[in-house]
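Handout, section B. The chain below has 177 residues.
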Amino acid sequence: MMMKKSATSFLFLVLIGLLFSCSDAEPEFNSDLKKSEDVWKAFRESSGNTYRYTVSFQSWTGTGTETVISVAEGRVVRRAFRYTGIQNLPENFPEAELEWVENESELGKHEHSAAQPITLDEVYNKAKSEWLVKRNAAKTYFTAENAGMISSAGYVEDGCMDDCFRGIRITAITAGK
């Protein structure tokens, strides 16, 4: 009887441990993300938390965009946007929307097409809490090709055919002045 009770208690504890250790909230690529975040923290320190990063998007249609986010001492101070491929935009597309710049007091004025005006600290947080969360029926991606810092983080839902990546692609990170 004592042996049966001990075995049942042991199995119960193992089951509880498995349930809590396999949380969906834990990001995929946890080890790679941690290494990349450590590289980022060293870069942030050495740059005085002043840097620029470039977010790129390329559609299967040939339309592309590039957003450069400038951060000074931990605050986003500028967002510059431009289309890099315009062949499939409507003929009546407003010329003023093809390329623009927002300074600190204007951040967020333009609502579509550009990357959000957020710091790399916020990018890493979104990677952990949104883009790299384990999902059923989705493939998750993470790369750190900017001298060890994040270059892509996101997912594609199974069965999606066109422009399905949800996340971020960073093509450059440079220290500011």
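Note. The first helix runs from residue 2 to 21. Compare this with the example in section A.
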